[in-house]
Design a protein that fits this description.
213 residues, 36% helix, 6 helices, alpha/beta, 7 strands, seven-stranded mixed beta sheet, Rossmann fold
């Protein structure tokens, strides 16, 4: 990735990271929505994603909004995602503030998203790993709501069943709309900076189909 000539005060992503778990077992689960956004961007930008052992992830580069951007899906499993991201940053000499991380969040209802310049992990294991390996919380992140479980299972079992579960057909259609919107957010961040994208999209909600009640 070559250096871009963005206006200095604008925060323009140079690396977009989608969090998830590798393998067919986890494909299309709620926890892997970050992977889906990266796949959508790769399709839009005609970026070829391929396994890169040195990055412990699936990686590709392309051009969008006049910037050369890397796309990464760590293949380390969620709780070690930071290892993969750190490897890319060290290789390309990218600063953490130029990384945009996309991941699922149970504290947001499905259909809602939040873009922020920094923040805590909020209990998310992937983000805990990112913060540890990047040496702090100051990097942009896009949280995509997956809602909370409505089951009666106790504690952690309910959480695991929800985040690693596959949504119903109606919820899947809802999530795919969110993925499309998230890709739009990333593209605006590239065109006009993360802060402008925050002001444009943080109030947006994709309403659920009537089948979801």
């Amino acid at each position: 990735m070559a250096d871009d000539s963005a206006t200095p005060h604008l925060i323009i992503p140079r690396l977009v990271v989608g969090l998830g778990n590798p393998g067919e077992k986890y494909a299309k689960t709620r926890h892997n929505i970050g992977f889906e956004v990266v796949d959508t961007l790769a399709h839009r930008w005609q970026v070829a994603l391929a396994s890169q052992a040195k990055f412990q992830g699936i990686y590709g580069e392309g051009w969008a909004a006049g910037h050369k951007v890397g796309l990464l899906k760590p293949q380390t499993y969620m709780n070690r995602s930071g290892q993969s991201v750190r490897a890319v940053l060290d290789w390309y000499k990218v600063e953490p503030e130029a990384v945009l991380v996309i991941y699922d969040d149970m504290d947001l209802a499905t259909g809602r998203l939040r873009l922020r310049l920094s923040g805590s992990a909020g209990g998310h294991n992937g983000m805990k790993s990112l913060i540890a390996h990047l040496g702090g919380q100051d990097f942009p992140r896009l949280r995509l709501g997956i809602g909370r479980t409505a089951t009666g299972e106790p504690g952690d079992r309910a959480v695991v069943a929800h985040v690693l579960g596959r949504p119903s057909a109606a919820e899947r259609a809802h999530m795919e709309e969110v993925v499309t919107l998230a890709a739009d957010v990333v593209e605006m961040a590239l065109r006009e900076g993360v802060e402008k994208a925050m002001s444009r999209f943080n109030g947006r909600t994709i309403e659920a189909p009537s089948a979801l009640g």
